[in-house]
């Protein structure tokens, strides 16, 4: 499925890659966190070995030997795909707001605000949101105001190098004036995320879509070997 240019920060990999892996995720869903960690949990370790500029042979060696600069060979899905099928698959993070968790709307708005300020920080902030997800569960937020939660999310954005004030400005509901239910400056972007999920029949997170086709057989509990087996029939050889 297409990715509007204003959401380019949601993509990992080349925009021209012929095949697409999309995963619909909710920042306050424990199962989303589980699959997200399997997708890209060791980001800092990749950066420490110059992952983005590593050669194809070097990347493959990280998955096939014990000589990697870590405790064990890499076990994450996205680096494995790029190492074994370079340039063939792009990954798109799809935001799945789940309204039975009231804070879901707020954290997804924050991610969109971060992307507006600096698209390159979307995944850094997503990493941080998942890491801190329990702080935004129902019980910790039960007695907090919406503005207080926005302030905490803006503080969190600052930890990944994004302007706190810029993020909070996008999240703040403008008080006064004629319109009392107009939302904030990322409301329209959030609507687009929700409309896309609805039109494609996405009901829960995580949900995996390959080349536009939903596959409900994929589990958040899969390890790398199970992903490898699944990918064998998915990635085109040419």
UniProtKB/TrEMBL annotation:
It comes from the Eukaryota. InterPro entries: Thioredoxin-like_sf. This is Thioredoxin-like protein. It comes from Jimgerdemannia flammicorona.
């Amino acid at each position: 499925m297409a990715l509007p240019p204003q959401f380019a920060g949601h993509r990992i990999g080349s925009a021209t890659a012929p095949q697409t892996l999309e995963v619909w995720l909710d920042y306050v869903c424990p199962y989303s966190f589980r699959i997200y960690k399997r997708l890209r949990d060791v980001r800092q370790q990749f950066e420490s070995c110059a992952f983005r500029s590593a050669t194809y042979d070097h990347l493959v060696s990280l998955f096939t030997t014990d000589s990697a600069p870590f405790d064990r060979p890499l076990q994450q899905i996205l680096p494995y795909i790029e190492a074994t099928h370079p340039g063939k698959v792009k990954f798109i993070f799809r935001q799945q707001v789940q309204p039975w968790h009231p804070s879901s709307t707020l954290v997804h708005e924050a991610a969109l605000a971060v992307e507006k300020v600096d698209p390159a920080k979307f995944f850094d902030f997503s990493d941080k949101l998942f890491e801190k997800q329990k702080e935004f569960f129902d019980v910790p937020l039960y007695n907090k105001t919406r503005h207080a939660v926005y302030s905490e999310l803006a503080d969190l954005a600052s930890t990944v190098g994004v302007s706190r004030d810029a993020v909070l400005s996008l999240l703040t509901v403008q008080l006064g004036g004629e319109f009392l239910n107009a939302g904030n400056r990322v409301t329209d972007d959030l609507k687009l995320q929700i409309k896309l999920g609805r039109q494609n029949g996405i009901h829960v997170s995580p949900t995996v879509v390959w080349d536009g086709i939903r596959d409900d057989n994929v589990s958040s509990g899969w390890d790398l070997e199970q992903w490898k087996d699944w990918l064998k029939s998915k990635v085109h050889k040419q």
